[in-house]
Amino acid sequence: MSSPILKLIAQRIALGILLLLAISVLIFAGTQILPGDVAQAILGQSATPESLANLREQLGLNDPAYVRYFHWLGGVLTGDLGTAMSSGQDIATSIKGRLWNTLFLAFWAAIVAVPLAIILGLIAVRYRNGWVDKLISGLALASTSFPEFFIGYLLVYFFAVKWQIFPAISTVYDGMPFGERMQAIALPATALTLVVLAHMMRMTRAAILNVMQSAYVETAELKGLSAFSVIRKHAFPNAIAPIINVVMLNLAYLIVGVVVVEVIFVYPGMGQYLVDHVTKRDVPVVQAVGLIFAAVYISLNIIADIAAIVANPRLRHPK
Amino acid sequence: MADGKAKSTPLLDIRNLRIEATVYPPGEAPKNIVLVHDVSLTLEKGKVLGLIGESGAGKSTIGLSSMGYGRGGVRITGGEVILNGRDILKGGKEGFRKLRGREVCYVAQSAAAAFNPAHRLMDQVVEATLLHGTATRAEAEKRAVALFRKLSLPNPETIGERFPHQVSGGQLQRVMTAMALCSEPDLIVFDEPTTALDVTTQIDVLAAIKDAIRDTHVAALYITHDLAVVAQVSDEIMVLRHGRLVEWGGTRQIIKEPRQEYTNALVSVHEIEHQEQNPGATPFLSVKNVTAAYGGGQVKVLKNVSVDIYPGQTLAVVGESGSGKSTLARAITGLLPPEQGTVTFDGRPLANRLADRPKEDLRQLQMIYQMADVAMNPRQTVGTIIGRPLEFYFGMRGRERDKRVAELLDEIEMGKGFVDRYPAELSGGQKQRVCIARSLAAKPKLIICDEVTSALDPLVANGILKLLLNLQQHEKVAYLFITHDLATVKSIADSIAVMYRGEVVRYGSKSKVLTPPFDAYTDLLLSSVPEMEIGWLEKAIKGRRMASAGN
């Protein structure tokens, strides 16, 4: 590793942190603009003006906005996400388990979806414009075109109701044995896989096809390499940067976009948690979840950027 | 190698080869076109056959057919390709894969593009050898290092650890030759291996290739459009045109006593007589002590350059790539504002930056580029392209404009029928003519021609040069002619500036610049231009006083 690379990586990370700070301002400002008064919301319509004033004082609602922002930010940085208004529970503690559940589900969906998408993309390139390619593209497109709730219900209907292989409701709890846990998430993970598969597959195919026009691919063919070796050894390494990018976007989606799937399968993840508290207008929870989602999104994109930098031999081995 | 048995059965015997492709013209039904019409050739072991012709002659297509390869949907539809005694066209895909990289290897025009940027050179050089299992990795690498040494690459032991972007173009071309030789093939197809290189680098690569062919006794098909180059390496030369054989004979016969008129035209190309004009009293454009740099002054590309251009005359700027020729044009046009120095036009200084120049100044300086096809909007017709400067500078509209467009088309020797054509429907030479008409439309005092003939076939390029000279006589326009090709310079220039690493090393009238005594660099440049003469290469290498910058 040489210094220009380290410098580029440091730049990306610094930019990411800056971006995250900007987003925290936006999230804070956004929730402040929303109509309604937190104190009123907590105490309800029947509260007396005195008790409202007391609670406002207690919650620091009378301070100017920037003081409240830094107070909130300071809390976030020290791991204190505040307390949920609706339940009075500490947000950090309730999020911890749910974030873990969401990551667990996303991890297994990704483990299946990413290699599958890339391999299907490679196969599609190998048999480009033939029936195999068209079949893969068609199926992948179909699975993306169906709304995820539809796929979810289809899976529930067949695998849970008709054949009764997997549970329809993905209940997980602390200390659940690994095997049972895997069985519980089988259906939501499958639904997620089907949702993100096509995008990654088609981008892999397009990125590699783009490289297939290069003179060095012809060189490889003229060495007598088989079609698949040409794609794997000579085309794929040069298409890696755009592929990583789209993979990371989809991984981010697996974490922050799972709301619908989690609701369908009643899976206790971040999405469920967010939806529950949006309906309750629980602003501190929405802020906390929003910030976490933003952090996940930004860090995955930083990873994609860094991977693209590291994958570039010109940057890795300067003249 | 060259025993009696080899003589009787040639290594490669192509019989009545027919190659077709399907084209898809917009709005019409797809149709078959024949690229190669029943061409036959034979090649003995250890011999070199030069395939020569203009683009579209089918030389690469024929060369690649010896590996059973058709570029971009090209199909071999007839004839036989007999290699080592068997018809490879009957072997199918598996058969092709077994012979590619083992019996026949390929050296591409641009090694810079033909090496995979993601892998180290050594891995790519030995790849075919390992794939076909003809040697172990250690043996193959040893062989590769020996070849690197033979091809006089610097640091032969360690150059294989480098990535393609870490090695210069001339070196890459030699590494590619080593890659082709590494699996010890019987035949190598060289496809314009030196065309993309500077003349001074070309001569080194050419000599390296020639030595390697001689020492390894490999046979070769050497494809090029440059007859002088192929005359240095070939035993025999085959002239092709439009996919048909024109003439096939020994190298000496082809270049000294061509039997066909077309061969004769190829041999005598570049013989334009241009009488040098004396510089007038005052230049209309003066570049004075201009220094320019990229990257905020980081990389100085022009150092204290001064040249003058006289009305209706041509200043040729010659030099290798990276010598600052095009940057000089950018500085004059204001695309790259100089850091120091001035450009005066008609006695007054021009604004440094393009944005600060009035429209009238923009009109006076026009440009023509190397790549005519990317210099035109593909969705505009020829009429729109040429009419645009008429509207922009003179406010011409309607019939008046159309009349002027027709006149201009006439001047570039293209008929009215081209008005409604799109660039894609024109040949390379026609595209460049349209670009010339577009620049003429502005009635400029100076046209900057940046390598305008480099991408064209010799005969077409010749036509363009003649056109430019004619136009100069009629329109009294001056040219700043940027080129790396000294033969072109001789036929068009009145004065010459030789550039080397951002500096003008020699400047004056054509006769003065081209008359000895020369400085070392001009000598290198002049002596590197291939001459149509057998044995020129050895003589030129012997007489060199300095090494070229590309190595």
Short description:
The complex is a heterodimer of chains A (319) and B (551). Chain A is mainly α.
Descriptive keywords:
heterodimer; A: 319 residues; mainly alpha; MetI-like fold; 0% strand; B: 551 residues; alpha/beta; Rossmann fold; 2 domains; six-stranded mixed β-sheet; 20 strands; 24% strand; globular; disordered N terminus
Word description of this protein:
The complex is a heterodimer of chains A (319) and B (551). Chain A is mainly α. Helices cover 78% and strands 0% of the residues of chain A. Chain A has helices at 3-33, 38-43, 49-59, 65-77, 91-126, 131-145, 148-162, 178-212, 215-221, 227-256, 259-264, 270-279, 283-311, 313-316. In chain A, helix 5 packs antiparallel against helix 6. The mean pLDDT of chain A is 87. With 551 residues, chain B is an alpha/beta fold. Chain B has 2 domains: 44-56 and 93-267, 3-Layer(aba) Sandwich (Rossmann fold); 286-515, Rossmann fold (3-Layer(aba) Sandwich), CATH 3.40.50.300. In chain B, the strands form 4 sheets. In chain B, strands 6-7-8-3-9-10 form a 6-stranded mixed beta sheet, sandwiched between helices. A 6-stranded mixed beta sheet of chain B has the order 16-17-18-13-19-20, sandwiched between helices. Chain B has a 4-stranded antiparallel beta sheet with strand order 2-1-4-5, covered by helices on one side. In chain B, helix 7 (137-150) crosses helix 8 (169-182), helix 16 packs across helix 17 (428-441) and helix 17 (428-441) packs parallel to helix 18 (458-475). Chain B starts with a helix and ends in a 9-residue tail after the last helix. Classes of the chains: A mainly alpha (319), B alpha/beta (551). Chain A binds chain B through residues 214-216, 218-226, 233-234, 237-238, 313-314, 317, 319, and chain B through 64, 67, 69, 71, 96-102, 105-106, 108, 110, 113-119, 124, 127-128, 131-132, 162-163, 165-166.
